[in-house]
Design brief:
binds 2-phosphoglycolic acid, seven-stranded parallel β-sheet, three-stranded antiparallel β-sheet, Rossmann fold
Length: 261
Amino acid sequence: MRVVIVEDAEAAGRRAAEEIADLVRRKPNAVLGLATGGTPVRCYHELVRMHREEGLDFSQVHTFNLDEYLGLAPDHPQSYRYFMQSHLFQHINVPQENTHLPDGLTKDVDATCQQYEEQIRSAGGIDIQLLGIGSDGHIAFNEPGSSLASRTRLKSLTAETIRDNARFFGSEADVPQLAITTGVGTILESRVCLMLATGQQKATAVREAIEGAVSARVTASALQLHPQSIAVLDEAAAAELDFADYYRRAEQLRESLRGAS
Ligand code: PGA
C-alpha cells in the first residue's frame, strides 16, 4: 500500500481531492466511488472550490456511494443521500441522474443490492474509490467479521459504529442499526482505492489496516491485497505506524523521480 503522510486534516482532504481531480481531468467520464462521514468533508470542500475557481468539470462523471442507512429517506438530514447533496452534488455540475446511492427505503433489499452491483458494472466499474476507516477498522459498513469477498448487502452496525455515529444523530438510539453497504469484494474491484484517515482516534485502526495481518477483524486490511491502494493520513492518524519514516522517505523519492522526469 502506498502511504502518504501529510501535516493535518486540511492537507489530507486537499491531497485526496487532488487525486480525484487529476483523474477527472484525465478521464472526464470517470466513475467515482464516494464516501460519507466526517473525514471526506474537507475533500469535497476542495473539489467544490476546484469546480468554482478552476472549472473542474463533473458533467460526464458518474458517482456511486459506498452505503446508505436502511429506513432513512433521501431528504432525512442524516441520510447519506442528503449528506452528498449538501456537501458535494448541489455545488458541482454532476447530473443528478449520474449520482447513485443504495436506496435506503427499498422494500426488497436483496434486489436493490443486486441492482446496485449491476449498475456499478454497467457504468464500467469504479475508477477511484474514496474510503474512510471506522475506529473498528471497517471500510464502508463492512464491520468486523465481514467476508473479504463480500458484495453489496444488508449489514448490522456494531455498537462501536453506532456510538461513533451518534454524534451526527444526537443520540445512539436514533442511529439506524442496519445499512446497505457495498462489500469488501465490491470495493477491491475499484481500479484505485484511496483511504483517507485523520485524527488520533483512527491511529490504531490505521496501524492494523496498513501494518497488521489481513483479516476480517479489520476489513480495511483487505486494501493490502489491492495493487493500487493509497492511504492518505494526517500525522495524528499515522502516529502508531512502525514504518512511518520509511513511508515518508519513499514519498520523497517518488516526488524527486517525478520532478526528474
Ligand atoms: P468518519 O467515519 O469519517 O465519520 O470518521 C469513517 C467511517 O466510518 O468510515
